[in-house]
Write a structure and sequence with these properties.
Layout: E1 2-6, H1 10-21, E2 25-29, H2 33-40, H3 51-57, E3 62-65, H4 68-73, E4 77-80, H5 95-107, E5 112-116, H6 124-135, E6 142-146, H7 156-161, E7 166-169, H8 173-183, E8 190-193, H9 195-226, H10 230-238, H11 259-271, H12 278-291, H13 293-298, E9 309-313, H14 328-338, E10 342-346, H15 351-355, E11 362-364, H16 368-372, E12 377-380, H17 385-388, H18 393-398, E13 403-406, H19 413-419, E14 422-424
Parallel strand pairs: 1-2, 1-4, 2-3, 4-5, 5-6, 7-8, 9-10, 9-12, 10-11, 12-13, 13-14
The structure holds uridine-5'-diphosphate-glucuronic acid (UGA).
Keywords: NAD, Oxidoreductase
Enzyme class: oxidoreductase
Pathway: Nucleotide-sugar biosynthesis; UDP-alpha-D-glucuronate biosynthesis; UDP-alpha-D-glucuronate from UDP-alpha-D-glucose: step 1/1
């Protein structure tokens, strides 16, 4: 099939590469000429395991362009995968979706299907249909379907090639048939429904995972108070297939470009129907508190942070990405700086992005050892392999006071005891 993808961000790019891998001819459109030039030269603007290999392997079937009109004109299917940024009130900004819809409507010269893959509020499919009708130049039939994605950063290629399901929100059997031609080569299970239900699947799924994290974080907080161990508790819970073991890792809260945005957007959507989503509200509040929980724990050891040497290990919202958007590390560093601490940070991937947020206020270190040498306190905010594998005895050897506050439970309590450090983690007893 001839497929066009609007947007060469991480969703658009991974989608384009995987569709080409399955034999489709794909034109990927982006307004950013620099990004398009980079892609044309065979390089990926983002790091996603396996992506660059797929782009190289399928370059015969992949085209990157800034010329949307040319790409959309004769496409059988056009996938909208542009960004949907968050507004200050929690609503979703659909400006880029509207621009893509308008451009498609003006360009299309044959019947086609427009599949909305961007995460959009329920009802956006109807809106896209109206934008297309208002701007359509030629007597062609353009059908809009909802086709949400479930890619996680760091495993996006695998998540697309071996997805747990393909969700299609269609309003006609013809659109369903066309979309199945796109996805049949993947040989994955389908959930076919109406457009609004498909749009809801995406929010309901992401927000459910966020609820699961906030729930387990609260259980972890109670474990600390009653002397239970969260890791044993989740092991015992997770074996129940009705619960499942994933997304039960207690820590300092969820971040990233999806969960914080999607929880707010779903809450906002329901509020627009005069319905308060109380579980979601609670999950958001718990997450905000959980993010700075370690700072509160640190205050039980020191009276103030002013003038203290503070090491921060891990900046990104999770390992395997350079993305620091909504990362718990940011809120913590802001408090430390505001209270006058000297902050030294280390992260294997997120430091370039962090430099745009904190310029000269923090010291960027090239090794973990450099960051913790002579430190009064060390905070761990991301569970990078490099941190997990770091010799825990080095904290005792290099820090001024070996006080380690670990927001991602990177070390076993036994190893902390043997190393002779003061060790605070999440949902487990303190070691001192
Ligand atoms: C999430 C979803 O997992 C994807 O299915 C979805 O497609 C994507 O959002 C999206 O909407 O585009 P992602 O944001 O890449 O993917 O990251 P996750 O792996 O879900 O992690 C999100 C946050 O939750 C991270 O900060 C992570 O540290 C935290 N987390 C995750 C926990 O604190 N505990 C856990 O057990 C799991």
């Amino acid at each position: 099939m001839d497929i066009a993808v609007a947007g060469a961000g991480y969703v658009g790019l991974v989608t384009a590469a995987c569709l080409a891998e399955k034999g489709h001819k794909v034109a990927c459109v982006d307004v950013d000429a620099g990004k398009v030039a980079l892609l044309q030269s065979g390089k990926s603007p983002i790091y996603e395991p396996g992506l660059e290999e797929l782009l190289k392997k399928n370059r015969e079937r992949l085209l990157f362009t800034t010329d949307g009109a040319a790409a959309y004109r004769w496409a059988d299917v056009i996938i909208i995968a542009v960004g949907t940024p968050e507004e200050p009130d929690g609503s979703v900004n659909l400006r880029y979706v509207r621009e893509a819809a308008k451009q498609i409507a003006e360009a299309a010269e044959k019947d086609c299907v427009v599949a909305v893959k961007s995460t959009v509020p329920v009802g956006t499919g109807d809106q896209v249909e109206r934008w297309i009708e208002e701007n359509r130049k030629n007597p062609v039939h353009i059908e809009v379907v909802a086709n949400p994605e479930f890619l996680s950063q760091g495993t996006a290629v695998k998540d697309m090639l071996y997805a747990s399901r393909i969700v299609l929100g269609v309003e006609s059997p013809q659109a369903e048939k066309v979309m199945k031609e796109v996805y049949d080569p993947f040989a994955l299970p389908y959930v076919v429904t109406d457009r609004k239900s498909a749009e809801m699947v995406k929010y309901a799924a992401n927000v459910f995972l966020a609820l699961k994290i906030s729930y387990i974080n609260e259980i972890a907080n109670v474990c600390e108070m009653v002397g239970a161990n969260i890791e044993d508790v989740t092991a015992g819970m997770g074996m129940d297939p009705r619960i499942g073991s994933q997304f039960l890792r207690a820590g300092i809260g969820y971040g990233g470009s999806c969960f914080p945005k999607d929880t707010k957007a779903l809450h906002w959507l329901a509020a627009g129907c005069d319905y308060e989503l109380k579980t979601v509200q609670a999950a958001m509040e718990v997450n905000e508190k959980q993010k700075v929980k370690l700072i509160e724990k640190a205050r039980t050891y020191v009276n103030h942070f002013c003038g203290l040497e503070v090491a921060v290990l891990g900046l990104t919202f999770k390992p395997g990405t350079d993305d620091i958007r909504e990362a718990p590390s940011l809120a913590n560093i802001a408090v430390l700086l505001e209270e006058g601490a000297n902050v030294r940070v280390w992260d294997p991937a997120g430091m370039e992005n962090a430099k745009r947020v904190f310029q000269k206020e923090v010291v960027y270190c090239s090794t973990i050892a450099e960051a913790i040498t002579n430190a009064d306190i060390c905070f761990i905010f991301t569970e990078w392999q490099e941190i997990r594998q770091f010799d825990i005895r080095q904290y005792a050897a290099l820090m001024k006071t070996p006080l380690v506050l670990d927001g991602r439970n990177c070390y076993s309590l036994d190893s902390a005891r043997e190393a002779g450090i003061i060790y605070e983690s999440v949902g487990r007893e303190r070691v001192c």
